[in-house]
Structure formats: structure tokens, C-alpha cells
Write a structure and sequence with these properties.
Length: 574
Amino acid sequence: MDYSIKISGEAGQGIQTIGNTLARVFARSGLDVFTHQDYESRIRGGHNFFYVRVSGKPVTAVREAVDILVALDREGIVFHEKELSARGMLIYDSSALGQVYERPHFLDIPFTNLAVEHGGGKITANTVATGAVLGILGMGPDILEGIIRDTFRKKGDGIVNANINAAAAGHDYAVKHCRKCSFSVPPVSGPKMLIAGNDAIGLGALASGCRFYAGYPMTPSTGIMLYLAGRADDRGIVVEQAEDEISAVNMALGASFAGVRAMTATSGGGFALMVEGLSLAAMTETPIVVALAQRPGPATGLPTRTEQADLEFALYAAHGEFPRAVFAPGTPEQAFHLTQRAFDIAEKYQIPAVILTDQYLADSLWTFESFDPGRTAYTEYRLKGDAFKSLPGYRRHEFTDSGVSPLAVPGDAEHVVVTDSDEHDEEGHITEDAGTRVNMLRKRLFRKLPLIRQEMEPPLFYGDDNPRVVIAGWGSTYGVMKEAVDLLSGDMSIAMLHFSAICPFPSTAKFDYLSILNNADVSVCVENNATGQFARLMRAGTGYEFSAGINKYDGRPFTLEGLGGEIDAVAGGL
């Protein structure tokens, strides 16, 4: 069982509500879910869709064929009818669209009339549509009713009952009238965790002890701020909406200098404003975590679409030479754990750490059994309390073998904590002495960098143990590459390498991934950018050059069939 559902219509028609609700129903039913949103940069109108894939086994990518299409406007029919699978059904409301379609794979469901008759108003038409989809799938309405009660409890019994009745009306109508429907969802026990990429980063920040977040809303990073703000009171975290990204990064730096773990998040345009703050963090050796959620540029570009074109920007942004850590999760689970890793590395080595995500991962929902709590750990690296007070003296930028100086909290003892954005001596005071400059640069860069590199995990390897074809990628391409390997493994010897630790580039000490690449007949780098930025980074970091590249840069993610076809075209003869 593996079904794809697409809800299509204009912004403002409740597309996201239907999609999110269905995903929650499936997750609570114990099914595996993957979702993706495609929306225009506008509040009302335009053409948008919400994609939900549900299966009895883990699913991690978008498929091109659609089994159930909910068309809330005519454009949904025009654009997506051709995507219907052989068993596909399209449901619509002829009264809302002003047209009746006499086609065998169409089912006219009067969402609005049923809403008025059973739900008490047109506003419950989306609930009718949600119930109808469950009816077509042969699923009962009980779990949906529970979600409705949870969602509308604070609005009173009247609203709750109106939506329950609307859902039941849509469900019953679909069961009665969809005589050609052949869908079947097997019973599965136990609910699953459902989480989006942005929420996973926010959860990872909380688990890492983050106590201050500053940001300026910018798609697709805003979800991180909303997640943290929703838990600010319970978790004791201060969330500040700054007037711009310059203020946001400097607020976070100030909070970090004052003694708490802090982060900010933005997209490419906002990160462009943050780069001076990034250099300030490097010079003052103040830990900070920045989540960079990519979208197509340059400038405003495609604000609500996805791309992986900010890799080199994250690697080289800001002036001067200094170490940084860059992580690129491929799933919400990786996002959760790598956010913790980013905080730990930033605090341990007193450097900026960047979490690279994108619209595709940020907004998509995935199901998991759980996140492994055994992998979560908190280490306090700051000098506090008696350990600080007992020191005979304190030098903020003291030369050490590791390059890491004692990081104390100002005001926690009688010792003065001094630092400066100019070059400084061990105590933190401005200096222009050439020898001190050389020693400071060696301390900040050359002593720390090898230690940080040792902590970078090698790529994840999946597939044939001795593959003739290897596909490699980073960040959000994980899911579609993994399913492409499964799809093609019957016809070719294939495996994938997925990189989530990007900078410093992982060595081969823990896992010799270069031998995998060198022994393959064909190696293909898969990226959502035009110029092959990761392929260049691989060549610069290891000397290895891929045989081919598959690049997509139209603002949309790879589909499973699309990527599989391109890989087959490159290596199908093997």
C-alpha cells in the first residue's frame, strides 16, 4: 500500500489545513507519511498544492503519479488531472467550480452543500473534503474526530460538533458514491511521530539548552521561530523578533557572550545581512548557531520554492579566515540531532556553526517511531561558578594547545571578561602587534581546525556493498536518493553516499568513502543547484571528480521517477 494524495487550489482555500489534517490522521493510525508543499508567494489566489504520501512502509520522497486528487479549483484539474494513476480518482465540487465533469475517474462531492447541511456553514467544507478522502481510502472517521476535538476544544462544543458532523457527511458520501474506488488501507497498530524539518530544528535547539533566539521572519526559516515561540514559557527560552537580520544575529551574539546558548535563523537574503556578525563571532570566539534555510535567488528569487544554491555562501561568507562548522540534515531526525551537534561544536570550540536546510525539508512532514534519546547529550563548556571564582586570574583569549580558551560568563566572578572585534591579546585588549596577530590566527584557525575535522561524521552509505554506480548528495536530497537506490537496485548495482557534515569536510579516517567512489564505474552528484557546488567542494576537499552531475534548479524538488530516470540515462548501460 503506497498512495499519493494531492490537494490543489488557491491560497486561502484551506489546502494546508486538509493536508496537515490527513497527515495527522495517517500518523495516528500508525502509517508512514511524507508530505510536501508547493505554494506561491501570495496570501490569496495563485496555484498551490499540498502533497501527502501514505504507505505501510517508510516513504521519503515525492512521486509523480497521484492516486487521489482533491481539486478545489479548475486549475487543479487543468494542471494535475494528467498526473492521475491508473487507479486514480479526482474529487471536486461542481457547484463550487461551476462545471460538471462527466469522466469515469471524477467524483463530484458537494463539499459546500454538505458543509451547510451538516456542518452549519461553508467554513466546514474543508472538513467535509478531509472526511471524503478517508472514505475513499476505506478508513473510518474515528481518528479524524479525535483530531477535530483536540483542534477545536477551546472553541466550544458547537464548533467541535459542527466539524465532526461535516467530516462524517463527507466520509459517508464518498463511501456511498465512490463505487469504483479500489483503495484499501490495512490496519496498523500504534501512532507515529509526525514532524517537519523546521520543527525538528527547533526541538533540537531546545534539547541543546538554547535559551535565546532572535530572528526576523523570512520564508522558509520562520517556522523555527514559531516553534520556539510556542514553547517559550514552558521551556524558559527568550524569543525576540528583531527589526532586521543584522539586529537578530547581534542580539544572539550578545546573549551568547552574556552566558546562554543562542541561535538565529534566516534565508539567503537575511544571511547576507548577517555575515558581519558571523565575522564578529569568529574574532571574539563567541559561540553561535545559525540556521540557513535556502530558497532560490539571487535577491528575492522564488521566495517560497526550494534550492541548494547557498552551500558556497555558507562556506565562505564573512571576511577573514576562521573555522566554522556547517551541517546539512537530510531528514527531520537528522535535523534534530545535527542541531544538537551544531550547538555542541559551537560551544566546545567557540565558533559559529551553520545548519543548512531548505524549503523542501523545512516544510515537509515525516513520520518516525521516535528520536533516539540516547543520542542526546549536553556538555557545559563555559567556566561558571566556583570554577571561575577560584581562578587567580583570567584571560579570555589565552593561548592553549587546543586553541580553545576558557569561556567565562561576565559578572559571574570578580574577574573581568574582555574581548574586542579588533585583533586582541590574550586578555582581550586591542593590539596591532604582528607577533600576537600571528599567534592569535594560529590559535583560532590552525589549532582548532584539525580537532573540529575529527568530529565531522563521514557520509551515510546505503545500497549495494560493491556498487558499480554511486550517487552522492547532501542535505535534503537524502530521501529521494534513498528511494531511487531502492527503485533501481533490481536493474543495476547501485548505492548512495549522503553527506550531512559539510565543513570541515569529513576525512576518510572513520570511513573510506573515496574507495567506494574510486571503485565504481560511474559516480553521479545529485544537487538542487545549477553549478554543482557540492561537486566542486568534493574536488577541492579530496581531489575526487564525479563522472556526471544531475542538477535541478527550477525551484522544485526531485521526484522519485524523475531522478530515477536521469540516473538510468547516465548509467543504465551498466
